[in-house]
Design brief:
alpha+beta; 45% helix; globular; binds flavin mononucleotide
Length: 210
């Protein structure tokens, strides 16, 4: 299966060569994230695309000094909502009604249920829930990049508070969840490039209940 071949080809690049990724490929990688399924369709995150080299250089020291931060072509930051508010929930439900062109009683009562549930919760719980949704989109982008023959490095190794400060995320009601440097592997200097992929066996992964 072509998709599985691409997923076998991909790996978490440890070194990138600075080569630029075409805008068309970047657009496809972002579109895959936009199309990701999310809980109640709320899409509770935004994606920042950083190409500004000075900004990348500011981010690298707070990201375990990982070279892919500066040597990637585009640095994607998946930033989740800091909490669920009435306004944010209503906006997505209103958008659904606008796009589909009708109001549905079941959908409206589902809206009321979410309004009665999420905004009252501890913002930390809401952020963690929103971040999980961002991770789904992040995974879709990783797969889409592989499909495009583009390398990525999933990056959780960074100081989120400092990244939020650098990017001014808190003021926008956002908090950084995870980063995705996008670019091309440096086959000369990446120690991981020729090593075998390691995954536990399907047997250890799977329980079939028939
Ligand atoms: C959420 C997440 C965070 C990760 N953070 C880092 C990171 O900060 N730096 C890094 O080099 N690799 C990071 N990785 C890469 C994993 O170590 C890697 O995906 C895993 O070992 C499997 O190897 P593969 O992706 O090369 O097949 C991260 C992966 C995920 C999914």
């Amino acid at each position: 299966m072509e998709l599985l071949d691409k997923l076998n080809w991909r790996y978490a690049a440890k070194a990138m060569n600075g080569e630029q990724v075409s805008q068309e490929k970047i657009d496809n990688i972002i579109e895959a994230a936009r199309l990701a399924p999310t809980s109640s369709g709320l899409q509770p995150f935004e994606i920042l695309v950083i190409t500004d080299q000075k900004m990348k250089e500011q981010i690298r020291p707070i990201s375990w000094n990982q070279s892919v931060i500066t040597d990637c072509s585009h640095l994607l930051v998946f930033a989740a909502w800091d909490t669920y508010t009435e306004d944010r929930i209503n906006k997505m439900f209103d958008l659904t009604n606008e796009i589909r062109g009708f109001k549905n009683e079941g959908w409206e009562s589902y809206r009321q249920m979410l309004l009665g549930m999420y905004p009252q919760k501890d913002p930390e719980i809401n952020f963690n829930h929103a971040a999980k949704q961002a991770y789904i989109a992040f995974g879709m982008s990783i797969a889409a990049a592989a499909f495009e023959g583009v390398d990525t490095t999933p990056v959780e190794g960074f100081d989120a508070d400092k990244l939020d400060e650098i990017l001014g995320l808190r003021e926008k009601g956002l908090r950084s969840a995870v980063m995705l440097p996008v670019g091309y592997r440096d086959t000369e200097s990446d120690w991981l490039v020729n090593l075998k992929k390691v995954r536990k066996s399907t047997e250890d992964l799977l329980t079939v209940i028939e």
